[in-house]
4Fe-4S dicluster domain-containing protein
Amino acid sequence: MDKFIRSVRLDEAACQGCINCIKYCPTQAIRVHNGKAHIIDKFCIDCGRCIRYCPHHAKIPAYDPLTVINDFKYTVALPAPSLYAQYNNLSNVDIVLNALIRLGFDDVYEVSAAAELVSEISREYIQAHEEDAPFISSACPSVVRLIRVKFPSLIPRLLPIKPPVEIAAEIARKRAMKKTGLPSKEIGIIFISPCPSKVSYAKAPLGIDKSNIDKVVAIKDVYPLLLPLMSRDESQLRPLSASGRIGIGWGNSGGEIGGLLTDNYLAADGIVNILRVLEAMEDEKIHGLKFAELNACSGGCVGGTLTVENAYVATAKTKRLLKYQPVSRSHLATTPEAGNLYWDDNVEYEPVFRLGNTFKESLEMMSTVEALTQKFPGLDCGSCGAPTCQTLAEDIVRGAATSNDCIYVLREHISSLSKEIEHLSKSINLSGNCQDENTQLLCDYIQKLTAELSEFGVPKKEE
Ligand code: SF4
Ligand code: SF4
């Protein structure tokens, strides 16, 4: 399994090499070389920010087409809670769930139902391990991936509980197998996702060995297809929903905390805010905190790049919908298929940003990076294709760039080369001695260099 799988791709033809994206990547995972952006796999946490900020729509999320429904004998849709937030004036979740059945799914199981189970077990876990608080939510795969590569000291703080989508997939599979008698491979568990990071999670999950999610489709693909199928005539609706306010609220920032029924919590959203919170937690600057709910997308999952509605409008729509819901409808005691809700695997630190193989080597390389960074103008202009002067210095130390990638260094280099050539030319009295066998080679060399320099805008010396 590829540990650094990512679901954000580059459309090379669309990329203009404008370097916009390199400035917005929170992990400095993008470089622009030869006029095209390039994502460094191991640095990317699938946050989707580059998708949002590319003015040429060259960064694209990868996910499955809805035709995957046809790949299985029996399919179960797992709608994310953020799907409901896309629709206007929704008062009954069953309107969306029944439309999914009309679209072609054989059954549905809400991720929000599993979220209520996660809320229940999280409450128990936090209470039983109060001395190890503060805990960090492990529901957003981008946050878990960020902690895995940048904040090793915070890994033990991650709540070791499977995310709601995984628990939903396990329950859905068990129920479908029992109901149909079909073998597991003929049942398709299909997640309707708000973001690309959950596409990567399904392929390479953290905390467990293998996910029960077979395919991941995008909310933005499903949304328009459901619209004509959404009958609001309550008498025609099968009662399919198994979640209430606690579960549906998980689609928005602060929703997970709503289910924990605890004080001393923090909810942060947007990857830049998350980085600040994690830095503060790493430096132990936040006191008395029990739990941190962190969502990489602004507004929570409703702000994912695979949704259609503005995150803040979607939040308002969720609030309206929640008014009509009971507090909670799913409980561990009445969901025997839930099985083990805890992680089976540890999340290991991946030191992808470390420069050397050993601490000593890293320290030495770091001092080279500092010295190199001093040579650059400190403008962080991005013209070299790296987001900052320090990142360019790190790339040079890793052997992935040269000082001449900096246009300021290159200009100085050319200028001093030009002066040297001029000096050499004068000293051998170029026009007079080029016929001389002994100086012919040197003359040719000087002329070649002079021609090359002219390509950088340095005028040829008058003959
Ligand atoms: S923002 Fe990045 S991906 Fe988009 S066109 Fe510019 S360089 Fe290419
Ligand atoms: S998805 Fe996020 S981490 Fe990955 S390259 Fe884009 S901005 Fe960077």
Summary: The first helix runs from residue 20 to 24. The CA atoms of residues 5 and 127 lie 35 Å apart. The pocket of iron/sulfur cluster (ligand 1) is lined by residues 15-21, 32, 37, 54, 56, 58-59 (CB under 6 Å).
